Amino acid sequence: MATVTLHSCSIVLAVAVCSTACAEETGEIGVNYVAATERIHTAGQPAADTLAGLAEQGFELVVNLAPPTSPGAVANEGKLVAEDGPTYVNIPVSWQNPTYEDFALFSAVMNGARDRKVLVHCQLNMRASAFTFLYRVVHEQVPPDEAFKALSAVWVPRDQWADFTALVLDKHGIDFALPKPE
Question: What is the pTM of this model?
Fold first, then answer.
């Protein structure tokens, strides 16, 4: 099992490196970039120069859900973002163990920024897209099928992430099951 996980991580990292180069060439914000709404955008790890220019694109808040020790993390990300103007928040969500407490903190940050354009990111836009999906469904009352479109543009959560998504939806009395990944 550990070998499969390490192999999968290597493939994901290789895709991230390739995707980051492609994203920079097309002017996108980061890997797997998705504008979930006009206000909330999600992406994988933006490059340092992108982070330093997010205010020019209208972003007022950047929420990073990856631990600062994640592969490809920008060491001085908070400084780069804050010097440009947007507020920066890092909520280091464990890939192996996302928690309801992580979601509650994310929700509090997002609820405090309802009138601000936000970039939510992580390494590959998997944490970010899942948290954003849940936030939109739970706090913005977006129908799950509609919110799922932005999530599925990146991935369909499985394993601990499918369990986490089901837990959050269940805690809020929302009857929706993610489709099984192919």
Answer: 0.85
